[in-house]
Design the sequence.
């Protein structure tokens, strides 16, 4: 069971990294500015998933701390960019 | 007991990865901005939260931090999606094949 778990964690890590590559390609191609904003937000969330998977694989709780900081900063950054696009000014 | 927790972790990781793949697939294939936003909301609320449930079930070392991160994601994900959707409607991005647009009617009244 333990060996199956480690194999599944490795496969999930590879899948998430491939998904990040797809999202970066979609941001570079992007049709509107909102599409690029959605893609950047999605890259942040998938990076968080990668950090959680690395914490599970290495059995190291430090990566969960890094994921907490990334979640808080990504949330504030996306809200600020959405307000900047909607109002054409930051404050 | 250890085997039960490992089984829970395996199920959570597989289902969470499936949700992430479906969300990114919807982000590529959907026709307009609002439906793409609907698809990507699933990655935050179901994909990452299920991976964090696997962390909480598997390792005793970071129980509290995982739960704090789950609460942060469940509160923050819908707020982010709402802000992006509101910004898209404010700058006038059109909807494809929409039956009605109540928010535009409300803005015309004001």
Sequence:
């Amino acid at each position: 069971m333990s060996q199956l778990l480690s194999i599944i964690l490795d496969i999930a890590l590879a899948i998430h990294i491939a998904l990040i590559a797809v999202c970066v390609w979609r941001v570079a191609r992007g049709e509107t500015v909102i599409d690029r904003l959605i893609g950047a937000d999605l890259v942040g969330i998938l990076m968080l998933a990668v950090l959680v998977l690395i914490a599970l694989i290495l059995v190291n709780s430090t990566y969960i701390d890094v994921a907490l900081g990334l979640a808080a900063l990504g949330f504030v950054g996306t809200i600020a960019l959405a307000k900047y696009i909607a109002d054409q000014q930051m404050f | 007991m250890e085997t039960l927790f490992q089984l829970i972790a395996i199920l959570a990781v597989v289902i969470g990865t499936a949700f992430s793949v479906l969300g990114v697939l919807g982000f590529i294939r959907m026709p307009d901005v609002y439906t793409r936003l609907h698809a990507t909301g699933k990655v935050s609320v179901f994909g990452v939260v299920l991976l964090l449930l696997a962390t909480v079930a598997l390792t005793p070392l970071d129980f509290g931090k995982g739960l704090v991160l789950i609460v942060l994601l469940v509160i923050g994900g819908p707020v982010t999606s709402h802000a992006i959707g509101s910004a898209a409607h404010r700058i006038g991005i059109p909807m494809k094949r929409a039956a009605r647009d109540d928010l535009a009617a409300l803005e015309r009244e004001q």
Observations:
- Chain B has a mean pLDDT of 88.
- Residues 2-29 of chain B form the longest helix (28 residues).
- Residues 13 and 51 of chain B are 5 Å apart (CA to CA).
- DSSP finds four helices and no strands in chain B.
